[in-house]
């Protein structure tokens, strides 16, 4: 067997309340997107949550850190990325989470029996969070005609991820998703008839700039109206400091739904 | 012939730069929605614009007031409401607009030849603005099962309005639409393949409250990505005073796209 040397970092989140082991170069590195995604789980959440496409597990661990009665299953296709989730889980700084985490190495787009056998049983979760691979998806909806086929495939990807979420979340359970604004139509189309009571939060770097992310929250089988909730603005008009609400959300001190 | 006594008001807009004659009780009364809708026409716009479902003409007159090279056709099904547009047009305070306004009494949902004969020729406008009757539409997407059929009919209404906009706007021409956030999915679905380069602006009464309106801008036959532009917030955290940007937009001093 060969030996691959991978450089890794240990990053603290939530003001030091948990630590994440991540690869330095290969694979997606987590940051604020994961923290904001985790913040869409309501305060006081209790139950089973699946982090679909968890990568090294940043969002899932952020939920564990803020919600002491949450049990989190990290679902990740990449053996490489999941190995970092394992390192994170076994790190002494995170020992209090150990009994509340499960790891599933599986492709989120698995269907039916294959999905069940991978450990994702129907109606077995109270909440699903996901950060679909949106670089692929938004790359598809450029005006480039040669990407038409890829566009179709990518829309299919969003649909496949939401199909899995729909299958594994119990009726009345929740969904939290982070994506780019350009994916709005694909998401609303794929979510129709599956999740309702949709709440959307747009994330703006500053008050005067276009939104860079969407958080979409939904309730399985709800038929309530869609609402667009107060915007989340990250920075003041000038400078790099976070606004107080963004800072509190980034550090696990507020959910996205807390009054402010 | 009988005689119906209708009480009317004369309201000043744009800090007195135009006057609108409106019925006191019957019919929709215009206000800030119409001013914000008109603000989505870019600064310096020159050409023919149709205000679909114009009512007494508030949005159309607001465009005339801010854009001196705009020619505006008010399209309204209600003879009653259009009679107020005529009074507005013939009022001495608005005399400078007279040569730039046309009135069309027609149902926006007319199709093909009937629409052309009503005065709405294909590809004949550079811009369309519309405020579809969203009370009907959002009333449909409540969880009430008995409204399922009405829901379908209402989604059809949004589609019909956008079908007319698509027919009468030249390729490269613009669309501006104001609606409630709950209509987001219906709008994006009805707009697909017709208008692209979508820019959405959400309107919040305050930073801490849910959005109450969407402005959606699009370009006929464009394939550019959807963007979510900076939010428009109307009021400070407390009090009823408008924030400076909202005040300037309400008074025709800024377009919705001007830097601020």
Q: Which chain pair has the greatest contact?
A: A-B, 32 and 32 residues
Largest sheet of chain A: 9 strands, mixed
Q: Can you give the mean pLDDT of chain A?
A: 89
Low-confidence stretches of chain A: 136-153
SS element count, helices of chain A: 8
Structural class of chain A: alpha/beta
Rg of Cα set of chain A: 18 Å
Query: Beta-sheet strand percentage of chain A?
Result: 25-35%
Distance between the termini of chain A: 55 Å
Name the helicity range of chain A: 25-40%
The general outline of chain A is: globular
User: Based on DSSP secondary structure assignment, what is the total number of beta strands of chain A?
Assistant: 11
From N to C, what is the helix and strand string of chain A? EEHEHEHEHEHHEHEEEEH
Assembly state of the chains shown? homodimer
What does the model show?
Two copies of one chain form a homodimer. With 260 residues, chain A is of the alpha/beta class. Chain A contains eight helices and eleven strands. In chain A, the strands form two sheets. In chain A, strands 3, 4, 5, 6, 7, 8, 9, 10 and 11 form a nine-stranded mixed sheet that branches. Chain A is globular. The interface between A and B is medium-sized, with 32 and 32 residues.
Give me a quick take on this structure:
Two copies of one chain form a homodimer. The first copy, chain A, has helices at 32-38, 58-66, 79-90, 112-117, 134-140, 148-168, 184-191, 244-250; strands at residues 8-13, 18-23, 46-52, 69-76, 101-105, 125-130, 169-179, 195-204, 213-220, 227-228, 232-233. By secondary structure, the first copy, chain A, is α/β, with parallel strands linked by helices.
């Amino acid at each position: 067997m060969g030996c691959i040397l991978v450089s890794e970092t240990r990053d603290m989140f939530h003001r030091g309340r948990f630590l994440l082991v991540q690869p330095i170069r290969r694979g997606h590195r987590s940051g604020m997107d994961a923290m904001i995604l985790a913040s869409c789980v309501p305060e006081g959440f209790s139950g089973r949550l699946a982090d679909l496409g968890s990568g090294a597990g940043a969002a899932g661990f952020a939920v564990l850190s803020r919600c002491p009665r949450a049990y989190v299953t990290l679902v990740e296709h990449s053996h490489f990325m999941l190995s970092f989730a394992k390192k994170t889980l076994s790190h002494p700084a995170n020992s209090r989470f150990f009994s509340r985490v499960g790891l599933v190495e599986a492709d989120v787009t698995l269907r039916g029996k294959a999905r069940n056998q991978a450990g994702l049983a129907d109606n077995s979760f109270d909440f699903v969070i996901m950060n679909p691979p949106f670089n692929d998806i938004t790359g598809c909806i450029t005006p480039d005609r040669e990407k038409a086929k890829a566009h179709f495939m990518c829309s299919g990807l969003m649909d496949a991820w939401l199909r899995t979420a729909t299958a594994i979340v119990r009726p009345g359970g929740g969904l939290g998703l982070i994506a780019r604004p350009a994916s709005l139509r694909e998401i609303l189309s794929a979510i129709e008839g599956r999740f309702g009571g949709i709440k959307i939060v747009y994330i703006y770097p500053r008050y005067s700039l276009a939104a860079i992310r969407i958080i979409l929250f939904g309730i399985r089988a709800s038929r309530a109206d869609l609402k667009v909730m107060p915007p989340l603005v990250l920075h003041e008009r000038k400078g790099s400091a976070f606004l107080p609400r963004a800072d509190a959300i980034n550090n696990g001190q507020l959910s996205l739904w807390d009054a402010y």
